[in-house]
């Protein structure tokens, strides 16, 4: 079974630029999550999708971050404009049915904002 | 707000010794407690989990205990091996799926 795919793996941008990350979840997984992991900290949920609907985006800085999950499969996370404090690893995870189901994580995208 | 505290932040043991990592959660409605292992350059991987209706769970060298009254849960690794070296995260969740992670414990197992 293929795992969660993410791209790119690394990205370096200047502050105020925009950036987008892509995630392809495990086939058949209805729930998709985006987490932000700052160096030395645990992952923090940014947004949770159930199929193509948003379940929780309470921690998403909506003035600069946006996410979509077209057709309930792939998802993109965008930052515009980026700030220095956005430097982190952005992890995508998926689970079969949300709730207490195991979340499978992708390898992450490491973003550096200069 | 929801919070999970994890201790210690770093742990160094000799191969064959046991390692214990402890977590405390604040949300009394939490009912699912997974533990993840994260190796360098990789995403977290689930190693064991426990639900609130169970006090203890074991899988080979790994065990987790849960004290709902005290809102504590712990990870126990016995007979540690060098390949156990990684960062370990505890997390807590209500039924809706959102995981609240601890800050992580960097475990080093020395041959």
From the structure above, extract its key features:
heterodimer, A: mainly beta, seven-stranded mixed β-sheet, four-stranded antiparallel β-sheet, 48% strand, globular, B: mainly beta, six-stranded mixed β-sheet, five-stranded antiparallel β-sheet, 0% helix
Q: What percent of residues of chain B adopt helix (DSSP H or I)?
A: under 10%
Q: What's the end-to-end separation of chain A, in Å?
A: 37 Å
Mean pLDDT of chain A: 94
The counted number of beta strands of chain B is: 11
Helix content of chain A: under 10%
Strand-pairing-aware structural class of chain B:
mainly beta
| Biggest beta sheet attributes of chain B | 6 strands, mixed
Q: Between the first and last Cα atoms of chain B, what is the distance in angstroms?
A: 41 Å
Which structural class fits the helix and strand makeup of chain A? Answer: mainly beta
Helix and strand succession of chain A? EEEEEEEEEEE
Write up this protein.
The complex is a heterodimer of chains A (114) and B (111). Chain A has 114 residues and is mainly β. Chain A has strands at 5-7, 10-13, 19-24, 31-37, 44-50, 53-56, 65-68, 75-79, 88-95, 104-105, 109-113. In chain A, strands 2, 4, 5, 6, 9, 10 and 11 form a seven-stranded mixed beta sheet that branches. The N and C termini of chain A lie far apart (37 Å). Chain B is mainly beta. In chain B, the strands form two sheets. In chain B, strands 2, 4, 5, 9, 10 and 11 form a six-stranded mixed beta sheet that branches. Chain B has a five-stranded antiparallel beta sheet with strand order 1-3-8-7-6, with no helix packed on it. The termini of chain B are far apart. The relative contact order of chain B is 0.34. The mean pLDDT of chain B is 95. Chains A and B meet through strand 5, strand 9 and strand 10 of A and strand 4, strand 5, strand 9 and strand 10 of B.
Architecture blueprint of SSEs:
The complex is a heterodimer of chains A (114) and B (111).
Chain A lengths: L4 E3 L2 E4 L5 E6 L6 E7 L6 E7 L2 E4 L8 E4 L6 E5 L8 E8 L8 E2 L3 E5 L1
Parallel strand pairs in A: 2-11
Antiparallel strand pairs in A: 1-3, 3-8, 4-5, 4-9, 5-6, 7-8, 9-10, 9-11
Chain B lengths: L3 E4 L2 E5 L4 E7 L6 E7 L6 E7 L4 E4 L2 E6 L4 E6 L8 E8 L5 E3 L3 E6 L1
Parallel strand pairs in B: 2-11
Antiparallel strand pairs in B: 1-3, 3-8, 4-5, 4-9, 6-7, 7-8, 9-10, 9-11
């Amino acid at each position: 079974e293929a795992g969660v795919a993410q791209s790119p793996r690394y990205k370096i941008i200047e502050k105020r630029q925009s950036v987008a990350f892509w995630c392809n979840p495990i086939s058949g997984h209805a729930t998709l999550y985006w987490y932000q992991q700052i160096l030395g900290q645990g992952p923090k949920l940014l947004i949770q999708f159930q199929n193509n609907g948003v379940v929780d985006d309470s921690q998403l800085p909506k003035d600069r971050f946006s996410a979509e999950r077209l057709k309930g499969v792939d998802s993109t996370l965008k930052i515009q404009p980026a700030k220095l404090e956005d430097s982190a690893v952005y992890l995508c995870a998926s689970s079969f049915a949300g709730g207490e189901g195991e979340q499978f994580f992708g390898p992450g995208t490491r973003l550096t904002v200069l | 707000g929801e919070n999970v505290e994890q201790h210690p932040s770093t742990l160094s043991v000799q191969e064959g010794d046991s390692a214990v990592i402890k977590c405390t959660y604040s949300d009394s409605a939490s009912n699912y407690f997974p533990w993840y292992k994260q190796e360098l350059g990789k995403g977290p991987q689930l190693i064991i989990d426990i639900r609130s209706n169970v006090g203890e769970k074991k899988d080979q060298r790994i065990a987790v205990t849960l004290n709902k009254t005290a809102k504590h849960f712990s990870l126990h690794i016995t007979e540690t091996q060098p390949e156990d070296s990684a960062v370990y995260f505890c997390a807590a969740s209500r039924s809706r799926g959102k995981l609240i992670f601890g800050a992580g414990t960097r475990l080093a197992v020395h041959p």
